[in-house]
């Protein structure tokens, strides 16, 4: 499919007329998304992408996947250095192995469906309305703004918080089993880490706080991942799990930290070194 593909050819605009601000269906979709986000920090717009493009989403992801940075890392839920001085009972001292991989933005073709969607102004306006913001900004990070998350069989994306306040994602390839999205809505806030509940989830005693979500290719997920602890459970079978992650912020200039960038992509760029004091709207651990 050419890079000049229109938004109407990608999105099921009969259900989600995102470019028509006056359409009743758009207003209904925005209202429903806001209600879900207010309730538990997550909403899913089912079959957002036209069904006839689901196979292409998967094929394009397969072509990108070899460009992912594959390396098993020992990490904590905050993605801060493991030698950070923390109290003995701090959840940041609980270590996981992260086996998922990321294809960075500079390895995603501009003609890919996910790139076309990520940079579309009407799509961004629609998302801003859903999140209740005047506008959204693409991540200034040259690697982390748009990525393809690859979870190979036997691997997982362990419990973590996001750098940005909210994330937009889309499953592009489903695994045969496993790979379930699990999250703890609003487990922390801009003002408090709520360490006791985070510790309970990480140690397996906080099951009451965990919700699980079934996702299908073409579904668009809106998620407040900075305040909701979340993970992808281990993938089983022979098929990897691929997810496009569209990173935006309500502030311009957001760039990932050097530590997190090196963990996720195996390299850092001058932009990361220059932004050691990256833009943040809170004082939470990363």
Key attributes of the depicted protein:
286 residues; alpha+beta; Jelly Rolls; seven-stranded antiparallel beta sheet; four-stranded antiparallel beta sheet; 15 strands; 24% helix; globular
Written overview of the protein:
This protein has 286 residues and is α+β, with helices and mostly antiparallel strands. The chain has one domain: Jelly Rolls, CATH 2.60.120. It has helices at 7-10, 24-40, 54-64, 113-118, 121-131, 195-202, 258-265, 270-274, and strands at 42-45, 73-75, 96-98, 101-103, 137-138, 146-151, 157-160, 167-173, 177-178, 181-184, 211-213, 220-223, 229-232, 235-236, 241-249. The strands form 4 sheets. Strands 1, 4, 5, 6, 8, 12 and 15 form a 7-stranded antiparallel β-sheet that branches. It has a 4-stranded antiparallel β-sheet with strand order 7-13-10-11, covered by helices on one side. Helix 2 packs across helix 5 (121-131). It is globular, with a radius of gyration of 18 Å.
């Amino acid at each position: 499919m050419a890079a000049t593909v229109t938004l109407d050819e990608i999105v099921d605009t009969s259900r989600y007329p995102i470019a028509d601000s006056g359409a009743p269906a758009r207003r209904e979709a925005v209202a429903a998304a806001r209600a879900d986000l207010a309730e538990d920090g997550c909403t899913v717009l089912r079959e957002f992408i036209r069904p006839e493009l689901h196979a292409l989403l998967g094929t394009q992801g397969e072509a990108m996947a070899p460009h992912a940075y594959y390396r098993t890392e020992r990490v904590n839920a905050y993605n801060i250095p493991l030698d950070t001085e923390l109290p003995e009972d701090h959840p940041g001292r609980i270590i996981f192995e992260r086996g998922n991989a990321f294809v960075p933005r500079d390895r995603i073709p501009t003609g890919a469906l996910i790139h076309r969607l990520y940079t579309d102004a009407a799509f961004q306006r629609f998302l801003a309305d859903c999140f209740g913001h005047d506008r959204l900004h693409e991540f200034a990070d040259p690697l982390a703004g748009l990525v393809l998350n690859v979870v190979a069989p036997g691997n997982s994306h362990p419990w973590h918080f996001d750098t940005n306040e909210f994330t937009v994602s889309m499953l592009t390839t489903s695994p045969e089993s496993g790979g379930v999205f699990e999250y703890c809505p609003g487990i922390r806030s801009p003002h408090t880490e709520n360490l006791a509940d985070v510790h309970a989830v990480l140690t397996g005693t906080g099951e009451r706080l965990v919700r699980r979500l079934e996702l299908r290719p073409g579904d668009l997920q809106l998620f407040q991942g900075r305040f909701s602890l979340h993970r992808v459970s281990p993938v089983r079978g022979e098929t990897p799990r691929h997810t496009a992650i569209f990173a935006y912020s309500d502030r311009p200039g957001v760039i990932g930290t050097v530590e997190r960038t090196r963990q996720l992509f195996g390299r850092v760029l001058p932009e990361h070194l220059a932004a050691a004091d990256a833009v943040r709207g809170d004082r939470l651990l990363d």
